[in-house]
Automatic annotation (TrEMBL):
It is a multi-pass membrane protein. Keywords: Membrane, Phosphoprotein, Transmembrane, Transmembrane helix. It is found in: Membrane. GO terms for cellular component: membrane. It comes from Pan troglodytes (Chimpanzee). The chain crosses the membrane at residues 64-83, 103-121, 133-152. This is Tumor protein p53-inducible protein 11. Pfam families: p53-inducible11. Signal peptide: none annotated. Its main location: membrane.
Length: 158
């Protein structure tokens, strides 16, 4: 009996065969669009999903607060640097300023904080936003204590 030899096996190079690659990806369920219009590159990305979907929305007034804070910090900083007498007069009701240097140093510090606020306005990272809000809270707390102590010391507290 003569046995027929099977034809030699030919390897199929699916990496170069574009139709085969598309069929394989279709069977695996990757490469196509899902209901949200996303194109998944792998099954892992399908299972894990897109990180952007799960981001928490920012509060409505957060960006407005950041903008208003940046503008106010910048305005008061420029006023403290350029017109220290008028700023001291506005805060302490007509008291005469003895030295302009501390007020200008205060203006420089406020200008630094305002630069941080302007940069935080354009970021989406939650950690940076948290630290800037904490910076503002600390600043306002220290400002309240300093102004209260100064008013008590000068006897202007009513």
């Amino acid at each position: 009996m003569a046995a027929k030899q099977p034809p030699p096996l030919m390897k199929k190079h699916s990496q170069t065969d574009l139709v085969s690659r598309l069929k394989t990806r279709k069977i695996l369920g990757v490469g196509g669009e899902d209901d949200d219009g996303e194109v998944h590159r792998s099954k892992i990305s399908q299972v894990l999903g897109n990180e952007i979907k799960f981001t928490i929305r920012e509060p409505l007034g957060l960006r407005v607060w950041q903008f208003v804070s940046a503008v106010l910090f910048s305005g008061i900083a420029i006023m403290a640097l350029a017109f220290p007498d008028q700023l001291y007069d506005a805060v302490f009701d007509g008291a005469q300023v003895t030295s302009k240097t501390p007020i200008r140093l205060y203006g420089g510090a406020l200008l630094s904080i305002s630069l941080i606020m302007w940069n935080a306005l354009y970021t989406a990272e939650k950690v940076i936003i948290r630290w800037t809000l904490l910076t503002e809270a600390c600043y306002f707390g220290v400002q309240f204590l300093v102004v209260t102590a100064t008013l008590a010391e000068t006897g202007l507290m009513s």
